[in-house]
Design brief:
binds magnesium ion, 7 strands, alpha/beta, 38% helix, 7-stranded mixed beta sheet, binds adenosine-5'-triphosphate
């Protein structure tokens, strides 16, 4: 997403909230159900959506998934851990003046930087001011402690992250996650890059739950969202 993005483009992120009866929203609910089934014996409390490269639909998938969990009555927290190109505050039209990084900069209590959204049960922590050392922050002991605290407050925590290939941030964040969903911009991203991203995630022992095929082009005409979910490697 670039500076040229139109407001209606941002709104699209939250189709699950705007039009819960649409087939697109139904697809997000199916994704939620499949995540639950993928881990019968294990709790899937902390999740992230990864992609090999920029703009494949991570934030869109993550935020809509968050809405479907909230609609189910779960207490849900979205954290913007994309400290390089944050966008959760834009999706929810909130200020980014304080957020995750404030808990590091000013030692502000993390509960002070959680904000409500206009969706019941759904809360966000924006990124806060962009720091010079995102990887260091995300990999810190303090981050681990914050996550432990937040897990006591929320039923589901979803972390937004940068793409896997250019920087280590998402691999670091995956260590806090019970599961990772890989989103692939269908038809646009080279297979080798997807394989490389998956290898990187495997290397840090991330648990990849499945793959979402996102097709931006098609969905532009009448919002169809084609996805694929499975355990194929
Ligand atoms: N299924 C879809 N249909 C239509 N537009 C989509 C779809 N998925 C994503 N988009 C649009 O494509 C752009 C990129 O999506 P998004 O911001 O979710 O990707 P991202 O992987 O989070 O990007 P980044 O790597 O920059 O964080 C956005 O403008 C978004 O609205
Ligand atoms: Mg994003």
């Amino acid at each position: 997403m670039g500076p040229m993005s139109q407001p209606d483009n941002k709104q699209r992120h939250l189709i699950a909230a705007i039009n819960p009866k649409s087939p697109v929203s139904e697809a997000y609910r199916t994704l939620r159900t499949n995540i639950q089934f993928s881990a019968i014996d294990q709790q899937m409390q902390v999740l992230m959506v990864a992609s090999a490269t920029v703009g494949e639909g991570k934030t869109t998938t993550l935020t809509n998934l968050a809405v479907t969990y909230a609609q189910e009555g779960k207490k849900v927290l979205l954290i913007d851990a994309d400290l390089r190109n944050p966008s959760l505050h834009q999706v929810f039209q909130q200020s980014n003046r304080v957020g995750l990084t404030s808990a590091f900069l000013n030692h502000q209590p993390i509960t002070d930087v959680i904000s409500e959204t206009n969706i019941d049960n759904l809360f966000i922590i924006p990124s806060g001011p962009i720091p010079p050392n995102p990887s260091e922050i995300l990999g810190s002991q303090r981050m681990q402690m914050l996550m432990d605290d937040l897990k006591r407050i929320f039923d589901v925590i979803l972390l937004d992250t940068p793409p896997v290939l250019p920087v280590a941030d998402s691999l670091i964040v995956s260590s806090y996650c019970d599961g990772v969903i890989l989103v692939v911009h269908a038809g646009k991203v080279k297979k080798e890059l997807v394989k490389k991203a998956k290898a990187n995630l495997d290397h840090v022992k991330a648990r990849i739950l499945g793959v979402v095929l996102n097709n931006n082009e098609r969905s532009k005409n009448e919002g169809q969202y084609y996805y694929y979910y499975g355990r194929k490697k």
